[in-house]
Backbone:
């Protein structure tokens, strides 16, 4: 219902020249691929107190298209803007999100550098929890477990999001690295009630089901992420989920559906930086399926 959303935001803009309406119209333009409108509404937000939020959205959008260099530059600009304004927690959030993007596309060492920068900006609960995932993906399981235990020891029992989503997800990442996908899936169960706004646990559950060899269950998780694109418009998981979807179809023996999902991903990433590990993996897997057809 993008046309309706555009009307609502436009009507709001006619009454009040507020950046929130420009941001809403920018998101609609992104979904519609309207480059002229993207530029116009971005320009309206330049130099305002919401410019850092614009940069973050632009960074996510670039990441969703596989434009890594652009995404990292914009995440850094968002972080720098927040640092200038003294909002160190948001600055750390920008850099730690950039680290998660790097993990998603297969650049572990870059993710380690970014999470270190994030923690220097501000050792927030979010950045520290994301560091656990970075440590796991870097193969440092013991350090990850020690870090998570230290974080948990400092959290109030009443922090529902931490105990219901962040901590279970971090522990599930550890169990998955140990080769225990069934334990990871069980740990992720409490996160379900947050997954309208939290896609990390959905993606991880899909990964765990792939490890278990359950293609149908994995497919259901990745499809949930794809279907939520209008909720979190620029989240880079909306692109990378197509790779999970393709792998789930391949695991289930549906080569045609797998080829279609790989093609969807490669279309989304048609302008991606060519050296991304995830892109090379997806291209190789797609080509292998094409070869099987012949």
Residues:
């Amino acid at each position: 219902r993008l046309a309706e959303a555009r009307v609502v935001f436009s009507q709001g803009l006619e009454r009040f020249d507020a950046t929130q309406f420009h941001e809403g119209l920018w998101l609609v333009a992104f979904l519609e691929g309207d480059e002229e409108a993207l530029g116009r509404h971005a320009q309206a937000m330049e130099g305002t107190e919401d410019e850092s939020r614009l940069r973050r959205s632009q960074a996510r959008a670039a990441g969703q298209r596989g434009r890594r260099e652009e995404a990292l530059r914009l995440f850094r600009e968002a972080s720098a803007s927040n640092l200038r304004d003294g909002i160190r927690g948001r600055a750390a959030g920008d850099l730690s999100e950039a680290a998660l993007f790097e993990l998603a596309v297969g650049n572990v060492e870059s993710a380690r550098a970014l999470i270190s920068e994030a923690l220097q900006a501000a050792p927030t609960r979010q950045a520290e929890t994301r560091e656990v995932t970075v440590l796991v993906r870097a193969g440092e399981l013991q350090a990850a477990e020690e870090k998570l235990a230290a974080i948990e020891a400092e959290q109030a029992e009443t922090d529902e999001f931490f105990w219901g989503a962040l901590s279970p997800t971090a522990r599930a990442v550890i169990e998955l690295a140990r080769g225990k996908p069934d334990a990871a899936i069980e740990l992720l169960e409490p996160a379900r009630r947050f997954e309208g706004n939290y896609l990390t646990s959905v993606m991880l559950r899909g990964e765990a089901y792939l490890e278990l060899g359950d293609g149908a269950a994995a497919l259901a998780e990745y499809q949930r992420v794809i279907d939520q694109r209008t909720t979190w418009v620029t989240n880079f998981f909306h692109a990378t989920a197509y790779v999970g979807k393709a792998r789930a179809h391949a695991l289930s023996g549906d080569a045609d559906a797998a080829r279609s999902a790989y093609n969807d991903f490669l279309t989304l990433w048609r302008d991606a930086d060519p050296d991304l590990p995830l892109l090379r993996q997806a291209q190789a897997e797609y080509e292998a399926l094409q070869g099987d057809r012949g």
